[in-house]
Amino acid sequence: MADTDEILVMTALNEEEAAQEMLVDLVREGFILSGTYYQVKIVFQWEGQVHFDEEYKLMMKARAGYYPDIEKYIMENHPYRAPEVIKIPASFGSPQFREHLMANKRMD
User: Fold this and answer.
1) Alpha-carbon distance 8 to 12, whole Å?
2) Of residues 107, 63, 77, the one with CA closest to residue 11
3) Domains of the chain with bracketed CATH
4) Given 15, 62, 105, 108, which residue has the most CB atoms within 10 angstroms?
5) Contact in structure between 67 and 88 (CB atoms under 8 Å)
6) Residue pLDDT tens, the chain, 108 long
């Protein structure tokens, strides 16, 4: 995967404020162009038990070259012991959006 390829990165947090803060930080750093979050209900297994809960799912649009920085930020700032971090290759169909994504630079 080339650094300029498009990706979606997903994770989930248990508090809305934390979801907003993570997206704002990643946009400010220039690691993602944009992100959305929405509340979801989740069923999962943890330590041999089935759990039901609510979370905020985050979906972020980025260039593949920034993935290591995004993953590092999530792992260092996430409250879960084993946070999900999902990287999905993407193809953003709009030439204008892709151009905007490729122009996104890290804010040093």
Assistant:
1) 13
2) 77
3) 6-103 (3.30.70.120)
4) 62
5) no
6) 665 688 999 999 999 999 999 999 999 999 999 999 999 999 999 899 999 999 999 999 999 999 999 999 999 999 999 999 999 998 877 777 777 777 776 655
Helix (H) or strand (E) holding 82: none
Predicted model pTM: 0.85
Distance CA 49, CA 65 (A): 37
Residue with tokens 């759990």: 51
> Which residues touch 96 (CB under 8 Å, ≥6 apart)?
none
What DSSP string describes 26-63?
HHHHTS-SEEEEEEEEEEEEETTEEEEEEEEEEEEEEE
On whether the CB atoms of residues 98 and 78 are closer than 8 A, the answer is: no
CA atoms of 78 and 61, how far apart (whole Å): 19
